[in-house]
């Protein structure tokens, strides 16, 4: 029956985020919007809101693109939850273009999450009567500009489409298809000069980012009474260049993120997103608020000559409290840049943590191809290094 197929689909999503009973208040619709989509940040423990110096910043922090010039295109592919041996994969394409007349960059991305093919059966018989495919997709359009030499601003608008099935079966209600919209607001502080005790001037070697993403109405497949919130997410992060000379650089990234989803009332109805922005901080004990914060960090080492040939090694760590998802894993990654072209890959492993062997996320690989052109020369010292 179609209901069995839908149950398999829902179980896959639940396993995706490994929510336990205590974390159920944080579940949302269309969780694919939270997936770290690119290989570079994927190799940095899924952190990137403070770095945000390539076209994937559309996801991590669109304000980071305000500090970039030229054009860039990238494409990422990943087979998701490989431990399930299912036809789950996602593709992610990005584009950015600096336009002098706009004093900033226009950006775009397409995210496609494929859940595979399901068999449709009659309500009163196990015999197959057809098949259908399930997927989620999002189209994002954005704009990034500098508010000053040290501040960048970024804004995104997103169209979300979710197709769990192609049509209802028997007495089932709804079409299994839902569409909604959301938007993002982001800022980046990358000071030209910043004097700190014992460290001297770290200007252009430090950046701080803020991204409030997926602000938008609830999404529903049957009727508005059964609508679920989309994953409104607050992400704050930093990036610091720890070392750099003519051929080497070492960067540290750190992100903190939290879902801003309010608790349901006595009737099981969750607040609208504009109310949850505030109520999600006060509708639970402060200790639980702290537990719901996700921490991600990474280090990135580059060797080579900028604008010529470079290669990178990356490592990271992702941590989620046991009462709020209990995901924890180590990431590894590498990348190369040659002239206009680049390639990145990342790898997730959970096997080093007790009790997480054969975790659904373990052995996940991401691959990214990119091309960038027309960028103005960057200073030898400082962020961003770009591609």
Characterise the protein shown here.
By secondary structure, this protein is mainly beta. It has a single domain, classed as Porin. The chain has helices at 2-17, 39-43, 57-60, 273-279, 286-291; strands spanning 71-79, 89-99, 104-121, 128-146, 151-163, 177-189, 195-196, 200-201, 206-215, 233-244, 248-259, 294-304, 309-319, 328-338, 341-349, 365-373. The strands form two sheets. The protein has a 14-stranded antiparallel β-barrel with strand order 1-2-3-4-5-6-9-10-11-12-13-14-15-16. The protein is globular, with a radius of gyration of 21 Å. The model is unreliable at 1-25 and 377-387 (pLDDT under 50).
List the helices and strands and how they pair.
Blueprint: H1 2-17, H2 39-43, H3 57-60, E1 71-79, E2 89-99, E3 104-121, E4 128-146, E5 151-163, E6 177-189, E7 195-196, E8 200-201, E9 206-215, E10 233-244, E11 248-259, H4 273-279, H5 286-291, E12 294-304, E13 309-319, E14 328-338, E15 341-349, E16 365-373
Antiparallel strand pairs: 1-2, 1-16, 2-3, 3-4, 4-5, 5-6, 6-9, 7-8, 9-10, 10-11, 11-12, 12-13, 13-14, 14-15, 15-16
């Amino acid at each position: 029956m179609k209901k069995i197929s839908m149950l398999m689909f829902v179980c896959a999503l639940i396993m995706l985020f490994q929510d336990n009973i205590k974390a159920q208040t944080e579940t949302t619709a269309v969780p694919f919007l939270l997936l770290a989509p690119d290989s570079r940040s994927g190799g940095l423990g899924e952190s990137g809101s403070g770095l945000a110096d390539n076209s994937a910043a559309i996801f991590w922090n669109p304000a980071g693109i305000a500090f970039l010039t030229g054009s860039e295109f990238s494409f990422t592919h990943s087979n998701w939850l490989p431990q399930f041996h299912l036809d789950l994969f996602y593709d992610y394409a990005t584009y950015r273009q600096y336009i002098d007349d706009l004093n900033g960059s226009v950006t775009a991305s397409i995210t496609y999450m494929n859940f595979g093919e399901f068999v449709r059966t009659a309500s009163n018989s196990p015999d197959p009567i057809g098949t259908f495919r399930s997927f989620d997709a999002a189209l994002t359009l954005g704009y990034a500009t500098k508010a000053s030499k040290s501040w960048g601003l970024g804004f995104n608008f997103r169209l979300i489409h979710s197709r769990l099935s192609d049509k209802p079966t028997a007495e089932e209600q709804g079409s299994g298809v839902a569409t909604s919209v959301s938007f993002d607001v982001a800022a980046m502080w990358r000071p030209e000069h910043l004097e700190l005790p014992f460290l001297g001037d770290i200007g252009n070697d430090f950046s701080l980012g803020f991204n409030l993403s997926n602000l938008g109405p609830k999404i529903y497949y049957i009727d508005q009474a059964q609508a679920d919130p989309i994953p409104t997410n607050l992400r704050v992060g930093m990036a610091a260049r720890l070392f750099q000379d003519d051929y080497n650089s070492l960067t540290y990234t750190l992100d903190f993120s939290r879902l801003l989803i309010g608790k349901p009332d006595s009737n099981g109805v969750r607040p609208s997103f504009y109310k949850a922005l505030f109520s999600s901080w006060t509708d639970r004990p402060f200790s639980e608020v702290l537990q719901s914060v996700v921490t991600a960090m990474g280090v990135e080492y580059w060797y080579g000559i900028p604008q010529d040939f470079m290669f990178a090694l990356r490592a990271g760590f992702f941590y989620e409290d046991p009462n709020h998802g209990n995901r924890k894993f180590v990431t590894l990654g590498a990348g190369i840049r040659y002239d206009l072209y680049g390639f990145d890959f990342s790898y997730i492993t959970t096997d080093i943590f007790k009790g997480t062997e054969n975790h659904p996320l373990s052995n996940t690989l991401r691959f990214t191809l990119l091309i960038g052109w027309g960028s103005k020369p960057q200073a030898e010292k400082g962020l961003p290094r770009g591609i």
